[in-house]
Structure formats: structure tokens, C-alpha cells
Design a protein that fits this description.
Elements lengths: L2 E7 L16 E2 L2 E2 H7 L5 E6 L4 H4 L5 E4 L4 H12 L6 E6 L7 H11 L4 E7 L4 E5 L2 E6 L5 E3 L3 E4 H10 L7 H7 L4 E5 L10 H14 L3 E13 L3 E4 L2 E4 L3 E2 L7 H13 L5 H4 L13 H13 L2 E11 L9 H12 L6 E6 L5 H4 L3 E12 L1
Parallel strand pairs: 1-4, 1-6, 4-5, 7-12, 17-18
Antiparallel strand pairs: 2-3, 6-11, 7-10, 7-11, 8-9, 13-16, 13-19, 14-15, 17-19
Helix pairs in contact: 3-5, 5-6, 8-10
The chain binds magnesium ion.
């Protein structure tokens, strides 16, 4: 079956304020209608417009039809434009609902397999009152009541015939369909599929769009240091007594180096060696919190915060377990985050390989950054 979409955008809706009708106002950097159309990308769309809006509408690159004085008349103009195009199903949608999802569209088309019409709605969950002169004058039973949304989906020939037979004045296409005796299935709607009506609705829609475009970055890091003569090692900022030391240009804190590289990795900023060249004598014996502090500072400057990180130390000895909490606490302190965003754990390598032979310690780390 061939599915067409009618987007009704001929209204002059003025409750939102502003110089332009609401469907032409800007939302997150582009007109509301550009967002609405994006939800139907790849489908055959007819946009029903007010004649005055034609110059703006021509920039959107879809088929335009001029609407009538009422919503019914505008939908009928769209249906007439689609007659004879081979469309067997049609979705009729309000242009001022820019956040409709493809998942909802798919649910509607699925329901059309069994019914001539299908429309999204949400059950009313708030108590309902009647009011008069600022006082509650009665309550209404909310059982069986729904908040209707669009797109409303229909078999094409049935809804065209229903509109042609309807005297006019319907609130939506479900009302037209029911007047013609068509069954309309209720499909679960979406709370985010809001209709822009009042000025505050734009801020709410922008918040939803921002959430959908959330910038999340992951990085990983790996480091190895060899054992040498000594009586302690530094691991994740904690001095751990041990029969050997770790060899390195800095304090050789292998865990903190892996974590620092993970953060640089998430930012696509190379590794510690790029920012603190081993050839530069000023970093000789440096405490590794300088490196970690630099990486997290770079993340903050770019507008990211650390969502979580996970460090795994690979060694037979020293035993990490007794020190893991202190390591977690110290890493969290250096990075300025809550301790439950930091994980430090350890594994042996079953006496295999260089870590198994106790020639050195390896560390792996993963970090997730989220744009704030
Ligand atoms: Mg290192």
C-alpha cells in the first residue's frame, strides 16, 4: 500500500504571539514546519498552506496545496490533491505538532491493517472538574476519556468519501470518519507529541529536541608501566606499599594515565604524550593528578561533564581490593565529581603474560562525557 501524508498548516494561530503564524515561527533554529516535515522524510507529503505563506513554503521542497477557510476545507483540499496518485493510506497531521516520532507513525500504519482509521491518544490521568466563576462547580468522571493527537491515519478512499459527505464544522478527521460510520482504533500517543499552542510550548519543545540531540562521548585508555626497584607504587592517586616500584618519566601512576587518556580520547584530543611530552624535563617525576586535572579541565572548557568512568588495573600484586575505595575517592576528588561516577576495579591475568610474570602493571579505562 502507498502511504501519503497531509500536513495541515493553513491556520493563522495567534495564541502563541509573534508576527508569524506559529507553524512558521522558529524552533531550535528552523521553522516549526521543517521539524514536522522531517518526521515524514521519505514519504509522499502534501503541505496545505495559507496562500499568503507560499513564498516561505516554497523553500521547504514539498508539494503545496492552498487550504480553505476551515480545517475541514483544508484537509479536503489535500485529499483532492492526492486523489488519483495511487495513495491507499493517508496520515493527516497538524503542522504545529513538530515532535511526532517515526515509531508512532509505524504504530498507526500497523493499526490500519485491521481498521479503516487509527488515531493516537493519551488516556486522561488528571482529575477533571467543571468550573464556574473561578469556583469548582462539579467533577467529571475521567474513565474512558482521551486526549486526541495527530497524525490520524485512514484508508484513503474511505476518508475522502467521508469528507465529501460531511456537512463541515468537525474538530478533527476522526469526527469526520465516525460520522461516516468508520471505526477508528485508538493507538497509544506520545507525551512529547505536543501541539504548539501557547508561548511556553516552544520552550518545552526545544527542551525535548535538545534531549534528543544529546551529545554523549566515550573514550578509552590503556597504559603499561614496568616494575623497578622500590618499596611502593602510585595507583589511581594512592600510595600503595609494595616490594617494587613502577618505572616511568612521571610518578608512573598507570591507572590515572589510562583514565586521563580515556578523557582525552572522548574529546578526540590525543593522549597524555601530546599534552605533556616526555621529552620535556619539567614533567619528570610529575604527580599524575596534573595530567588528569588538565584532561578534565579541557572537557569542562568544551562544555562536557564526566558522566562516569571505569578503571581496571591488571596485576597479580599488589592486591588492589583493600585500596579500591581510597582510589575511587581520590579520582573523584581530583575530577570534582561524585564518587559513584567513578569505578576502580582489578583483575589478575591468571599468571599469564607480562602482568602474570609480575614484570609490570597494565590499566584500562573508559570515560563517558556528556555535553551540559
Ligand atoms: Mg603512562
Amino acid at each position: 500500500m502507498d502511504t501519503a501524508v497531509i500536513i495541515v498548516a493553513a491556520g493563522r494561530g495567534s495564541r502563541v504571539g509573534g508576527a508569524l503564524p506559529k507553524q512558521w515561527q522558529m524552533l531550535a533554529g528552523k521553522p516549526v514546519l521543517a521539524h514536522t516535515l522531517a518526521a515524514f522524510a521519505g514519504m509522499s507529503v502534501v503541505l496545505v498552506i495559507h496562500p499568503e505563506d507560499r513564498p516561505m513554503a516554497e523553500t521547504l521542497g514539498v508539494r503545496l496545496v492552498e487550504g480553505g477557510a476551515t480545517r475541514d476545507a483544508s484537509v479536503l483540499a489535500g485529499l483532492r490533491a492526492l486523489a488519483g496518485t495511487g495513495a491507499t493510506r493517508v496520515l493527516i497531521h497538524d503542522g504545529a505538532r513538530p515532535l511526532v516520532s517515526r515509531v508512532l507513525v509505524d504504530r498507526l500504519l500497523q493499526a490500519l491493517e485491521d481498521h479503516p482509521g487509527a488515531a493516537p491518544a493519551l488516556a486522561v490521568t488528571d482529575a477533571l472538574w467543571r468550573g464556574n466563576a473561578g469556583l469548582v462547580s462539579g467533577t467529571v468522571d475521567r474513565a474512558g476519556l482521551y486526549r486526541a493527537q495527530t497524525p490520524q491515519a485512514f484508508r484513503f478512499d474511505a476518508i475522502l468519501a467521508a469528507h465529501l459527505a460531511h456537512p463541515g464544522g468537525a474538530l478533527d478527521d476522526v469526527e469526520v470518519a465516525r460520522a461516516a460510520g468508520l471505526d477508528v482504533a485508538i493507538v497509544e500517543g506520545e507525551e512529547n507529541n505536543l501541539k504548539l499552542t501557547y508561548p511556553g510550548d516552544f520552550a518545552r519543545a526545544e527542551a525535548v529536541l535538545k534531549g534528543q540531540s544529546m551529545d554523549v562521548r566515550m573514550g578509552n585508555g590503556y597504559d603499561v608501566h614496568a616494575f623497578c626497584e622500590g618499596d611502593h607504587v602510585w595507583l589511581c592517586g594512592v600510595k600503595v606499599p609494595h616490594g617494587k616500584g613502577l618505572l616511568g618519566h612521571s610518578d608512573a601512576d598507570v591507572g590515572m594515565h589510562a583514565l586521563t587518556d580515556a578523557i582525552y580520547g572522548a574529546l578526540a584530543e590525543g593522549d597524555i604524550g601530546r599534552h605533556f611530552p616526555p621529552s620535556d624535563p619539567q614533567w619528570k617525576g610529575a604527580a599524575s593528578h596534573i595530567f588528569l586535572g588538565h584532561a578534565i579541565g579541557l572537557a569542562t572548557a568544551r562544555g562536557y561533564r564526566l558522566a562516569n568512568c571505569d578503571v581496571t588495573l591488571v596485576c597479580e600484586r599488589p592486591k588492589i581490593g583493600p585500596h579500591a575505595l581510597a582510589m575511587q575517592t581520590e579520582l573523584a576528588r581530583i575530577m570534582g565529581v561524585e564518587t559513584d561516577r567513578v569505578s576502580v576495579k582489578a583483575t589478575t591475568s591468571e599468571r599469564l603474560g607480562f602482568t602474570g610474570r609480575e614484570e609490570g602493571i597494565a590499566a584500562l579505562a573508559t570515560a563517558t562525557l556528556v555535553k551540559t
